[in-house]
Amino acid sequence: xxxxxxxxxxxLGITGSISAYKSIEFLRELQKRGADVYAAVxxxxxxxxxxxxxxxxxxxxxxxxxxxxxxPEIRHTTLGSIVDLFIIAPATANTIAKIVCGIADNPVTxxxxxxxxxxxxxxxxxxxxxxxxxxxxxxxxxxxxYLIVDSEEGxxxxxxxGKGRLADIEKIVQVVEFYFIPDFLKGKKVLITAGPTxxxxxxxRFISNPSSGKMGYALAEMAVAAGADxxxxxxxxxxxxxxxxxxxxxxxxxxxxxxxFDNLDGTDIFISAAAVGDFTPVRVADEKIKKTEExxxxxxxxxxDIVSEVVASGKAKTVLGFxxxxxxxxxxxxxxxxKKKLDFIVANNVKNGIFGSDNTSCIVIGKNLEKELSGxxxxxxxxxxxxxxxxxx
Length: 393
Ligand code: C5P
Fold this sequence. Notes:
- The chain is an alpha/beta fold.
- Helices cover 34% and strands 26% of the residues.
- The strands form five sheets. It has an eight-stranded mixed β-sheet, sandwiched between helices. A five-stranded parallel β-sheet has the order 2-1-3-4-5, with helices on both faces. Strands 6-7 form a two-stranded antiparallel sheet.
- It is elongated, with a radius of gyration of 25 Å.
- The two termini are 24 Å apart.
């Protein structure tokens, strides 16, 4: 597991929603990523999550009373200020309303009044959620600078369907990871292609390549984390669409080209991370090609070069391409950079096969830039984005 939260102290506020049981899994996920997690819990929250579980797992005393007996510590002022992040998951309608009003009657609301910022993950019954008071309160907290990971639609513990479920733990973890990444792409539009393309021979067979899409998806995730408006145009992969972006799935080069040009206007950074097929059959058979003893000859023609067409259109301010090479890495990549008139190119040595791996090493090359990067694809993605946006790496 990538230690994306190494060295971070996180205070997890737990309130009295049935979904509080998920906060234990959430705490573990944060710890797996290297975070040191403390727990603050409301009296109702304690009915759902036993203190012993929180204390044992977090390795810290649980903050369960604003005024603890026999303790000189004023934890609502100390704990809130020593942690890097205060996150309330789940946050009930009641707790949200109290925070809006500045009430500080339990460890969670008292910490909120002291810190005044953090992440809030509402979870409640659908009618409580849809009550104008709650909707307004959530809006107020957003305006005050809290990051809201909104409830999701689905089956609720009370048996009804509707909005009010705690967001997926996986999603909340991602929001926490992204919380610590600076917003250096705020207001920027980033369009990214990723994954392999498929060129059909007949209705059931196609030519493709082993691209996993991981690098393009990592770039998309990190661009979202850095505050960009992101569109990810992806060939078929086994990856889940990342949260917080517009996702367009395509199969063929022609579909990818169309999706790119449909979304290109006003793009600040175009990143062509897709492994776009270079050839497509001249003719696609209407019916499944019959197996014959003598075999078949397939005639292929070139596909359009999407990234070159994007450069020629002048619609993207900065264009970054990829060069997968097996020899003379830098020389070949530099040739590609100038031939395709790209602003930047990321050169990968694919001799030993990097497809599908979670780690990568590459060289990002620009007119006045040549920088070696290595690490997890997410780490490298963040460095690439910083390099192409002119942010200090
Ligand atoms: O020419 P080559 O395929 O090596 O160039 C790689 C770069 O060009 C990558 O950024 C890839 O996404 C892009 N490309 C493209 N359209 C193609 C082939 C490659 O956009 N038909």
